[in-house]
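Exercise 7 asks you to align residues with tokens for two separate proteins.
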Amino acid sequence: MPQSSRRTEPGKGKRGSGGITKPAEPRFIAIGRIGRPHGLRGEVVVRVLTDFPERFDSMKEVYVGPADSPQCRQVTGTRWHKDRVLLSLQGCDSRTSAESLRGLLIQIPIEDARQLHDNEYYPHQLLGMDVVTVDGEDLGRIGDILYTNANDVYVVVGPRGQTLLPAITDVIQRVDLAEGRMIVTLIPGLV
């Protein structure tokens, strides 16, 4: 089934007078978001945003900060608590210093991103992609991706206005990264 690797957050397409443009390939990909501090010694709770959570078990360094300007930090410890990672970072040794990291992204360099299977895509590869029906109708470009519990939903902006396309095999027929084009079938109830 065509799908994006749903838990990465590289950024959204830009809007302007020319419509949606294809964003530049990001330098980093988010794999987690820091939540609250855990305990008094600087450990933080991380909500996992990657489909490859096992990567946290062997990480030596991460990039922490906003998507456009993260800073390299050494990882001094990781452990799992339910579906969250408890992460210790060098230089973060108190609850106060951990609190200052709340809401920041845990990122890795794009070149360290895992190779995806066929019919899986990172969101940055789909944003700005042209969307055309199997009958040749231009629907516009993917401007955003909504992440739901059932499936991802591609937000296409074009001549019809906004069209929401679920990332399911009945709708998404083909994704061609080289051409920057997605071919879709509009099933009843979509438009």
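Second protein for Exercise 7:
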Amino acid sequence: MMKQLIARVGPCTLEPNNDDPFTLLVRCVISQQISTKAAESIFARLAELVKGPPVPLEKLAKLSEAKFKSCGISGPKQRTLRAVIEHVKANPKLLPGIPDLDDESIRAQLTAIKGIGPWTADMFLIFGLGRPDVLAVGDYGVKVAVKNQFGLRKMPHPDKLTKIGEPWTPYSSIACWYLWRSLEAKKEDA
């Protein structure tokens, strides 16, 4: 299945986005449960407002609810961003040292923040740190793509997705990238 997909999509262009860890975390929170295009638009408005990127923690901390809202950031995401700010302030060594941690330690550190779940941690690992072996079992797009590519009748449960993805180790992040691209290819074919 994956061999045909790789041939159809072409070379992988997945690269870390080179944001500093705080900006990356802000970007990941904004991206929760919305399309990539919408997330990019909202992040661009926020970055313009705080004269970034990078997104300065102190400027973000001073934004009012109305300013967040003017960028398109919902109330729950505002609360998560405030939790991120407080966590980073309380743990000043966390983000500078995060690239040196293993994937599981990073997941544990990030999911300790209210509003940050496994999906956000996975996106941080894949797109921010360029970790090669992250299988985003909670990502809707990955689930849809696996359902389509493997002819499943229903969306795969994380355990089933983990089993299907075993052969992709140690390049699960790249497999996820190809799965996401398969959805884009379907739109172009339509």
